[in-house]
# Entry
Amino acid sequence: MNNYVIIPAYNEGERISQVIAKVKEYTDNIIVVDDGSSDKTFAYAKEKGAVVLRHQVNMGKGAALKTGCDYALVKGAEKLVVLDADGQHQPEEIPKFLQELENNDIVFSYRKESEVMPLVLRFGNNVINTILKKTCGGHIKDSQCGYRAFTAEAYTKVRWDSRDYYMETEMIIKASKNRLKYSQIPIETIYSDKYKGTTVIDGAKIVMKMVGSKFLK
# Structure
């Protein structure tokens, strides 16, 4: 099976080398999308042997992931795993995602209950999860967790338009509309000293877009 791992990265020069080294234990098909970094993310990722695509300016996580996934499909990818570059997603979990894809179109993950996750993020995630359930049905335990996997065919059906963090929610909505078969697996909850990800403002934007998509059906 032609498996690819796609890693969007923005100013992750301090961690990208270690992440790539761990991913290499499971596949050599690694695509890093440097989303307009101003540090040495591009150089370090290249040095570690990943295919590195580069945005000249920061376009957002959704745009970076789409660039990487589109490229993987051109290269013949059959299964795609997407994970973050900041060390919050353990590459050791990759085999579980690939195994789940044997019987599913898409695999979502959810972070285990932990005090490590900041309270404001736990609250925000619960709000988004609840609204998402009401707008598109189903129950995704952790809609904002970006560690996911999907088949090439599934990607063509959930390919998102969003350039920002809403892409993770948009993917779920499109998976529901296309009646894709999915599973959910637990992953470890890890946060670095300097959290980078969905902020309170991002969360508010996600909620507004979800509500808007409900009325635009």
